[in-house]
Structure formats: structure tokens, C-alpha cells
Amino acid sequence: MQKFENVDVIAALGEIMRQNTAFYQSDFDIDKGIIQRAAASDQAVDKTLLWMSRPSGTYCFRERDVFLKGTRQHNTWRFYGEQTRDKILAYAVELTGTKDDTIRGNLYDLDYQQHFRHVIDAALPVSVSRLFYEHGSRDIPAEQYFDGSPDRALGSFLRYEFQPRDPAVLQEALQQEQRGREQARPGDFKAHITALHDSRIETEAQRIVDKLKDLSAPNSPNKTHFMVEISPHFDALASTKDNDRLFAMLPYKSLCFTGIKDRHGVYAMIGKDERRDVSIRRPRPSIRKQLTDSKQAASEKGGGQNQEKGIGGMKMYFTVEEENLICMYHNADRRRTIGRITAALPDMDEGMQTLAQQTLSKLERMTDADYDNQKFNFTDE
């Protein structure tokens, strides 16, 4: 379990929702209201919530209500684990206060599959329904029907909540949940969102590859191609860059994304002769990130200065980034190294191309003997 401390709760949950909830995002407006009322409440029990993001909607409940058997909140929380295969992102939310008109709190990343089973085992039976009115409350048996009508003595009906047989046992159970969360390790929320985003794309790539493997014969309308529909949930959330990344992870030479006449959706399509017993392409580590991390590491060690390399009696200066680039593309000798860097140029972004070209310029001015006599050190942690 990871915890993300002192976050803007509504903004953070919104970011998570946009990584998983493709449809009915308006459900989150209901969640915002629940969170705002909880933040304004003077009851401690209202400050701890359980929140879930589904492909088609969200839910937000008081943790207390989820741990009471037979309640709407309990039944809903377990339903998506027992009855669906939906991708569920689940979090415990602790509201701690407000700052600059934002609701602050801590988020705890839950393993939903594990958590809903724990809820089933730990939930307590209810005893009565407590009905709240303008001027007080009254209890009725939990199984007794009520319709929210006004009470002659207590006034208009406001709300209700189920009560356990022994409130002290429920309080201890909720305290136990809190103690368990205290063991969570602090996490980087931005990194968490990046991981959710990357996982969404990789999961869709893996699903498409698996579906294509399962096809026994070409299934396009004219029977010349194999095809699999891109998940509508993925398609609804995906940016142009997300689709580009998905395309790059699918290992097919004849791949195209296309619509089909008289059908809804977008399809990943490959030729009938294309090999399908293949795995997704894993994205390569970012060269730019490696070089940036190396520069930072060198700076922390006091080794971030330019390195001098002797060339024909002249002094050539190589930056840390240039040396790292040479090390990453080194191939036996100067000419082959130049060839490898040159071949990689089309796949580099503009900034990396600039770095590579200035490195090539220096390498081309060296002799083979000078290159062979130099030690190019990769600066890393």
C-alpha cells in the first residue's frame, strides 16, 4: 500500500478518475458533494471515506457504512469484485482539513481485489435503522420498511443510517483499519499517475495481442485480415499520443488502426499472413532521462564539469551528456560508434538530435588513434 499525504483530495481523485473512468464521469460530481459535506462535518466518522473508480462511473462511501453488512454501500463495494471483471481503482481517503479553499487529506492506494474480500470477512451485522428528523431521531428494526415520511413529533425526515448491535465493536474495527494504513509507505503522487497512465496503455496492448492470438481464422469483413476492436473504454480516454504509444507497442508490420463500415468502434487490423505468436514491444528506457539523471548524479558528486580529451595536441571538451551518449552507442571503434549514433538520429526528438549532432561533430574531428586512447566514462549512480 502507498499513501499520498496532504494532497488536494478532489483534484487528486479527479486525476485518478481520468486514468480509468471513460464513461459517466459525471458520477464524480456526486463524489465531490459527498467529500465537501464530509469536510464540513464535525463528526470524525465522516472524515474517512472509501472511493472507487470504475470504467463506467465512480462511488464514494463512508468507510463506516461499507463495513456494515447488508447496507447499500457494503453491497456495492463487494459487487464489482464478485460480479464483474471491471478494472477498479480503490482508495481510502482521510480528510485532514482545508487550506486555500481546497480540501486536504491523505490517500491510500488499495488492492481492490484483496480489499473487497477483507470487507466481506470483517463487516459487522446491522441491528437497527436510525432515522434522523428535524427534532431528533428514532430507531426501528433494520428489516422494517420506512418511506421517509415526516414524524408527527420529530418533524421532517432528514436521513438514516444503519447501526450495528455493538457500536464499540465497529469503532474498534475502523480503528484497526486506520492502524493498518499507518504502515503504508509514502509515495510520489505524480509518479503514481504516470504509472496508471502507462499501465492503461500496456494493458490494452497486451489485450489486443492476446485476442489476435486467439483468432483461428481471418475475421475482417472480406476475410483478408485479422482484427480486434480497440477497447471503447481505452479509446474514450486515449489522446493522440496514447494511440501512438499503443501502436508502437503492437509488434506487427502490417498493423493499422481503422474503422469498419457499418460497425462502431476502431479496430487494430493486421494482414492474414502476419505472425501472431509474438509479444508486445516494451518501451525502451528514455535516453534523455538517462542522460539527465546521469548529469544530476555527476553534479551531486562534484563531477559535472566538462571532461578534457586530447586530440592531436589540442584539447577537446566533452560534456557529461556527450560522454554518456558515446558510451551508450559505443561499438568497437570510433567509426562504428559514429555509425550507430547517426543511425539513431531519426528516432530522437529535437533536443536529443542537437546533443547527438554536436557529439558527432567532435567525434569526426578525432583520429581513430585518439579515440582508442580515450576512456569515456558513463556517469551514473
Kindly describe this structure.
The chain is built from 14 helices and 14 strands. Strand 2 and strand 3 (57-62) form a beta hairpin. By secondary structure, the chain is of the alpha+beta class. It has three domains: 2-125 and 165-187, no CATH class; 191-271; 287-373, Sporulation protein-like (Arc Repressor Mutant, subunit A), CATH 1.10.10. 43% of the residues lie in helices and 23% in strands. It has helices at 9-17, 27-40, 63-66, 72-82, 112-122, 167-181, 189-214, 232-237, 240-249, 287-300, 320-329, 334-344, 350-364, 368-373, and strands at residues 2-8, 48-54, 57-62, 89-99, 102-110, 126-133, 136-141, 157-164, 185-186, 225-229, 256-258, 267-271, 307-311, 314-318. The protein starts with a strand and ends in an 8-residue tail after the last helix. Helix 12 (334-344) packs antiparallel against helix 13. It has a six-stranded mixed β-sheet with strand order 3-2-4-5-1-9. A three-stranded antiparallel β-sheet has the order 7-6-8. The chain has a three-stranded antiparallel β-sheet with strand order 10-12-11, with helices on one face. The chain is elongated and about 100 Å long.
SSE blueprint and pairings:
Layout: E1 2-8, H1 9-17, H2 27-40, E2 48-54, E3 57-62, H3 63-66, H4 72-82, E4 89-99, E5 102-110, H5 112-122, E6 126-133, E7 136-141, E8 157-164, H6 167-181, E9 185-186, H7 189-214, E10 225-229, H8 232-237, H9 240-249, E11 256-258, E12 267-271, H10 287-300, E13 307-311, E14 314-318, H11 320-329, H12 334-344, H13 350-364, H14 368-373
Parallel strand pairs: 1-9
Antiparallel strand pairs: 1-5, 2-3, 2-4, 4-5, 6-7, 6-8, 10-12, 11-12, 13-14
Helix pairs in contact: 4-5, 7-9, 10-11, 11-13, 12-13
